[in-house]
Specification:
The protein has 299 residues and is an alpha/beta fold. It has one domain (2-165, 203-233, 265-282): Rossmann fold (3-Layer(aba) Sandwich), CATH 3.40.50. The chain is 44% helix and 15% strand. The chain is built from 10 helices and 11 strands. The protein has helices at residues 8-19, 38-48, 63-68, 70-91, 129-149, 175-189, 208-221, 236-247, 271-274, 284-297; strands at 2-3, 27-28, 52-55, 95-99, 152-158, 160-162, 193-196, 202-207, 224-228, 233-235, 253-256. The strands form 3 sheets. A 6-stranded parallel β-sheet has the order 2-1-3-4-5-9, sandwiched between helices. It has a 3-stranded mixed β-sheet with strand order 6-8-10. Helix 8 (236-247) packs across helix 10. The longest helix has 22 residues, at 70-91. The protein is globular and about 55 Å long.
């Protein structure tokens, strides 16, 4: 079973599993089930009896969206995750892999690069704290269900992911999809691209097909919390520069330093992931090109 099967990560996992020859897939999106409804989720699991669950469903916002919807973000995500994990236990799922987020790490960082055992060493960044605390609660629940019910689990702490089926929303979207929409709109109207902040914030960005490949590798090979990333830390300015080239919009960018940058620097220790058979297949530029072409072909 793949929850969030039509979103960014879920759809990529479905595509990759199909490509690998898996047939008995159960994609779950909003049209199949309201995952905040305990009774409906338990029925879904009892009817389908999944053996392995990729739990990718979440109520996701970008920086501004997280700041504007704190209560809703916390409530919806806690309900979704609680219902899914408890239902896994009810039907005896062999292993659940749950998608976390880099936002779970404390701010300021207890150390860099960020290691999985640092997650509970302080409070998350205030801009994303409700979403992050809901994702932390999911991790705490997985640990509890393993101790009480021997449930096998893995929890992916992801860097900034991007790709087809993302939320291309300039207000509530994440960095890359927001930028792609801004470039697309500016190109269409022959205007400048306004970018938040000064471009100095640095992140690890990973194309979603690589994220899906890493998730399947983790499901097969390791348990516990695992950071995933490209191992390459780029500034927002670097991403903008790639997009200028891809969209042929050089010199059309204006930086709005009155808007927030987000956290200055975030890099992940990938030692656990590097012990697996996972190898990155796409460069950032290739991933951005594929995502731009995908978005352009649908708008």
């Amino acid at each position: 079973m793949i929850t969030g099967a039509y979103g960014l990560v879920g759809s990529a996992i479905v595509r990759l599993l199909e490509k690998m020859g898996f047939e008995n897939l159960q994609p779950v999106g909003r049209r199949e089930c309201d995952l905040t409804d305990k009774k409906k989720v338990e029925e879904l699991f009892k009817n389908n009896q999944p053996e392995y669950v990729f739990h990718c469903a979440a109520k996701v916002y970008g920086i501004l969206g997280n700041m504007n919807n704190k209560a809703l973000s916390f409530y919806d995500n806690v309900m979704i995750n609680t219902n899914i994990i408890h239902s896994c236990k009810l039907v005896g799922v062999k292993k659940i892999l749950a998608m976390g987020t880099g936002a779970v790490y404390p701010f300021p960082s207890p150390g860099l690069p960020l290691k999985e055992d640092m997650i509970f060493m302080g409070r998350p960044h205030n801009a994303e704290n409700s979403y992050a605390q809901a994702k932390r609660a999911m991790l705490a629940m997985l640990e509890a269900y393993n101790e009480s019910h021997q449930m096998e689990w893995a929890y992916i702490v992801s860097c900034n992911l991007f790709g087809p089926n993302d939320k291309f929303d300039t207000t509530n979207g994440h960095v890359v999809p927001s930028l792609i929409k801004k470039f697309f709109d500016a190109k269409k109207t022959n205007s400048k691209v306004s970018v938040w902040g000064d471009g100095s914030a640095k992140r690890d960005f990973l194309f979603v097909d690589d994220a899906a490949f890493s998730a399947i590798t983790v499901m097969n090979e390791i348990s516990g919390s695992v950071n995933i990333g490209s191992g390459e830390v780029l500034s927002i300015r670097d991403i903008v520069s790639y997009l200028e080239k891809i969209t042929d919009m050089q010199g059309q960018v204006e930086w709005d330093s009155s808007k927030p940058n987000g956290q200055d620097y975030r890099a992940y220790d990938l030692s656990k992931l590097n012990q697996t058979s996972f190898k990155k297949r796409y460069s950032i530029e290739q991933g951005l090109h594929i995502t731009w072409d995908w978005y352009k072909s649908r708008n």
